[in-house]
Write a structure and sequence with these properties.
Elements lengths: L2 H9 L3 H19 L2 E11 L25 H13 L4 E6 L7 H14 L3 E5 L5 H10 L3 E3 L7 H7 L10 H10 L3 E8 L6 H13 L4 E6 L25 H14 L9 H6 L4 H7 L4 E2 L6 H4 L15 H14 L3 E2 L7 H13 L1
Parallel strand pairs: 1-2, 1-7, 1-8, 2-3, 3-4, 4-5, 5-6
Helix pairs in contact: 1-8, 2-9, 3-4, 4-5, 8-9
The structure holds S-adenosylmethionine and iron/sulfur cluster.
Length: 354
């Protein structure tokens, strides 16, 4: 698909033509990754964060938020629960928290890998190359790091660098690829100041980085953040809306452009549309869902944006409603780790060369 076609789809509003986009994305999804929906247990292990991202409720300056960091035994107990539920993967996610030290994280990974058959995905923000290498050596399989927007000016404005540290998530994704992680990137849809051209660039970046996982969710304003308190200075004339249709368009286009990628129907999409968000995501390109495993005592404190879907549901109920939704669509729960087809292809090419 060329850039003009991408831009045309992003601007499309005709329901019939959009219906044909959803159908194409669904057919390509079925052809390349099948009818299985892989479940990844999401564990939000710490809400501490040193960053000042203008969009996120966990940002360091939000001093009203009571913070938590789970201990190793708590994390291990939740990982065992993920294995008991039949998930293939546990995703350890957090703010950018120096309290999650190199040794702490490496030990947690080793213990999960020795006690369970789970694949381990990390989503711990921008960490040093030494830490990322140590965690890969300890057994971590995948790393999720959305680049949020490929517009360098907008990115710098909403994601300030820390003193003495340049923030370049695209460069970090390339480093993660070198370390042989399965890599996941992605963007928020409808960030104040984001244009349709920016989104077309973002989708082209998904392909250029040959992402194994692509996470796309709507921007949801948080009242305790600068972007949630009025974002006048970011105003542009062709602003992308942060709605369900726009999010689904980007998911569908991502599926057409990166047919082998694993693409989740995100919690943020389910937050915009509690009844149908997950089902829409799964029929417009998605093949992954991430049920929340975080213990109830911590869950509301992982306050990225307000009214997060599934915030009240305990892990078993969350799994139950996800499974029902998948079966209602005539799809199957994925078995095994659910590695991305692109990653497996790259691995087998590398071993063939060796
Ligand atoms: N700290 C890590 C990082 O930034 O990559 C992982 C946790 S962070 C909360 C995970 C993702 O949440 C971010 O990549 C961002 O896309 C998303 N996010 C943060 N604030 C959001 C908001 N207000 N609306 C929608 N998504 C948001
Ligand atoms: Fe911290 Fe990630 Fe939120 Fe930025 S998006 S404030 S790095 S948790």
């Amino acid at each position: 698909m060329n850039r003009d076609e991408l831009l045309q789809w992003l601007a499309e509003t005709n329901p019939e033509r959009l219906g044909s986009l959803w159908a194409q994305a669904d057919a390509v999804r079925r052809q390349y990754v099948g009818d299985e929906v892989h479940l990844r247990g999401l564990l939000e292990i710490s809400s501490h964060c040193v960053r000042h991202c203008l969009y996120c409720g966990l940002r360091a300056p939000n001093r009203d938020l009571p913070r938590y960091r789970m201990n190793k035994d708590e994390i291990l107990a939740c990982a065992r629960q993920a294995a008991d539920f039949g998930y293939g993967t546990v995703v350890l996610q957090s703010g950018e928290d120096p309290g999650l030290t190199n040794d702490f994280v490496a030990d947690v990974i080793r213990r999960i890998k020795s006690d369970t058959p789970l694949a381990v995905t990390l989503s711990l923000g921008e960490r040093s190359e030494q830490e990322l290498a140590a965690w890969r050596a300890a057994g971590a399989d995948r790393y999720l790091l959305r680049f949020e927007t490929s517009n360098a000016r907008l990115y710098a404005a909403i994601h300030p660098s820390l003193p003495g540290r340049r923030s370049d998530r695209i460069a970090l994704l390339r480093q993660l690829r070198e370390l042989e992680y399965e890599i996941g990137g992605g963007v928020m849809i409808g960030i104040p100041g984001q244009t349709f051209e920016d989104l077309a660039d973002d989708i082209e970046w998904f392909a250029r980085l040959d992402l194994d996982m692509i996470g796309v969710g709507p921007f949801i304003p948080h009242p305790a953040t600068p972007l949630g308190q009025g974002a006048g200075r970011f105003r542009v004339c062709n602003q992308v809306p942060n709605n369900e249709e726009m999010t689904c368009k980007v998911m569908a286009l991502a599926r057409l452009i990166c047919p082998e990628a694993n693409i989740p129907a995100t919690t943020a999409l389910a937050t915009l549309d509690r009844r149908n968000g997950m089902e829409l995501g799964l029929t417009r390109g998605g093949n992954v869902v991430m049920p929340n495993l975080t213990p109830a005592v911590y869950r509301s404190r992982y306050d990225i944006y307000p009214e997060k879907a599934n915030i009240q549901e305990a892990a078993p109920e969350c799994l139950g409603s996800v499974e029902h939704g998948i079966i209602r669509l005539g799809r199957r729960i994925g078995q095994g780790r659910g590695d991305s087809a692109s990653y497996l292809r790259r691995r087998s090419a590398a071993s063939w060369k060796a």
